[in-house]
Amino acid sequence: MRPSHDFVADHFALSRRYFLKTAALVSGGISAAWSGRADADDTMSKVAGKSPALDKAIAELEYFTQPEKFGTVERGTPLPYTHPPEKLREVGMVRETWRLEVVADDDGKSKVDNPLAKDKGTALDWDGLMKLAETRAVRFPKIMTCNNGGSPLGMGLWEGVPLRDIVWMARPGENIRRLFYYGYHNDDPKQMFRSSLPIGRVLEDAFGLPPVIVAYKLNGEFLSGKRGGPARIVVPEAYGFKSVKWLQRVVLTHAPFANDTYADGANDVDSGMKTFARFVSHPTTVKGGESIPLTGYAQVGVSGLTRVQVWLHPKGKELPADDPHFTKAPWQQAELLAAPSQWKNLPGNAVPATTHGFHADGRPSEWPMRYALAHWAAQLPAVAPGEYELRCRTIDAAGIAQPMPRPFPKSGRNGIQMVTLKVES
């Protein structure tokens, strides 16, 4: 596995609405977003005066990540998309030769009446996928995160065809409980990266979720090989290991268990994405008398998001006793920023019509959106010279603070981030 990303560095592009919004809030003398909260610390509701540093930091935030700047978790020796052009054509890693099989497990229990198989000449090809896309294309926003990564790989608008539409083409019959699926792996069984889903999740979307898709576009662009093209799985609510790249085969099985490669290493292969906060910009040194501008993002997981909080603690000062998640700390409210008015890094800076989770006029149907990104900002008042620890956390829709209710790292890392700050005299 080769992780390579800098999600924070990728979140710098002009956002005029954020700039105007924050300038109005801060220059107004009292932050409207903070002053109305009954549980906000008094010092946070009395931030006065315009802060050019905070305005600049907010103006540099971006929502969608450019495809070429997405972080990458890669497997394969060599990496499958790095083969010479003739090899890529031979193994189905280009659109013209790509094929997707949907077949029954060879255990003989599952029944599939019309298998989509290469040896029968019935596997789905690129033209067939695009024909489906003419009437069945689905788009939704999703933040892609590695289960064991400390920060997301990128935020994207994914487009594809519901996997169930392709499954039904194979005419599945009885004794099917799960789908196993995998992509090209250098024709080496030892390099195979597999994942799986219950058949119910593929055939039906509960709780307002978008469907599991065979994706072919990211932010309006066809997927490159590095991003998993020609086609990959994207599971809206899941960590990245469920969204297998270079998809070539789906197996319908009677097996009642997952067969995910990520089950190795004690990883939890069934839990949905978690809600957590991270910093994007923060000073490492400020002068005495200066306020402290902060920006960050929150990954909005299955439990939703209601607010983000920050906490500045003198370094070396005793931490609250018997409180590993700092629930007794004097957390202060940050501001969740509104949805952008222009969606940069999308064609025309706009969300396409009929995108899941959006109204016809391009407005999100809820904000923050689950399984997506939200930005936040705060401006802490000046503090005495010294060294400090600065932390941020989320509060989910049930009022539960990060890292609860699931603090276990093997189901997704969501520990409270800490950075240091020096205040000079």
Short account of what is shown:
This protein has 2 domains: 8-62 and 274-424, Immunoglobulin-like, CATH 2.60.40.650; 72-266, Sulfite Oxidase, Chain A, domain 2 (Alpha-Beta Complex), CATH 3.90.420. Helices cover 12% and strands 27% of the residues.
Description of the structure:
With 425 residues, the chain is α+β, with helices and mostly antiparallel strands. The protein folds into two domains: 8-62 and 274-424, Immunoglobulin-like (Sandwich), CATH 2.60.40.650; 72-266, Oxidoreductase, molybdopterin-binding domain (Sulfite Oxidase, Chain A, domain 2). The protein is built from seven helices and 21 strands. The protein has helices at 16-27, 32-35, 52-59, 85-90, 126-136, 163-169, 199-203; strands spanning 2-4, 72-74, 99-104, 124-125, 138-144, 154-162, 178-183, 194-198, 213-218, 221-222, 232-234, 247-253, 276-281, 285-287, 292-300, 307-314, 332-333, 335-336, 372-380, 386-395, 417-424. The strands form five sheets. It has a five-stranded mixed β-sheet with strand order 4-3-12-7-8. Strands 5, 6, 9, 10 and 11 form a five-stranded antiparallel β-sheet that branches. It has a five-stranded mixed β-sheet with strand order 14-21-20-16-17, with no helix packed on it. The longest helix has 12 residues, at 16-27. The protein is elongated, with a radius of gyration of 23 Å. The chain starts with a strand and ends with a strand. Mean pLDDT is 89; it is low at 1-5 and 12-50.
